[in-house]
Amino acid sequence: MERVVTGIPGFDKIVGGGIPRRNVVLLAGGPGTGKSIFGQQYIYNGLMRGENAVLVVLEEHPVQVRISMSQFGWDITKFEEEGKLAVVDAFTAGIGEAAKRERYVVRAPDDFMTLVDVLREAIRDIHAVRAVVDSVTTLYITKPALARGIVLQLKKILSGMGCTSLLISQVSVTERGFGGPGVEHAADGIIRLDLDEMNGELKRSIIVWKMRGTAHSMRRHPFQITNMGIEIMAEQTITV
């Protein structure tokens, strides 16, 4: 089994050493659970290992994403300049001075096929082997019936082009699902991040619901967000 090491402390241990190569994994969770940080950490750790990557941003300005990542010490500018990282701007539609400096811009973010064309171009240009889409839910939030089809289409492209990918999926605070009808069947893996109140305190936890191609922990593990990113306590378990 060829695996992609995420480099996220504690995570690789609970999935048997890393994510099976070419898997497309749904990273689901409610607001404030750390989904974007997890995805960005996965991208940055890959770059540090010499693995080129594509980051698709649908909900935040690319400039803000770079600032957010730099706060964890993840400076991605040099990797973009060296052609090792492509940030796909599917947020601004090319509007604004900063957006004009972006190389990969989806001019019609609500047109899925336009995004697919730009994504393909970015992966091909830099020979990416890691990809993160933040968030895939944005693509079908007003058309939930399309959720499974969109995830399957992304899976076909990303896996077919050799990427091991995270699709970030939003759920509401009370929802225990994965962010869209049928998406759990379309993805190769599902990671769920949660933020639950326990004895008057919010606790973060992670559980791997499925991961095709490998054995994985069936327990829920606590994690924390530090100034260096996400750290999972693989040796500990938590009951919600």
Automatic annotation (TrEMBL):
Gene3D superfamilies: P-loop containing nucleotide triphosphate hydrolases. Keywords: ATP-binding, Nucleotide-binding. The keyword Transit peptide does not apply. PROSITE patterns: KAIC. Pfam families: ATPase. GO terms for molecular function: ATP binding. The keyword ATP-binding applies. Residues 2-240 form the KaiC domain. PANTHER family: UPF0273 PROTEIN TM_0370. This is KaiC domain-containing protein. It comes from Caldiarchaeum subterraneum.
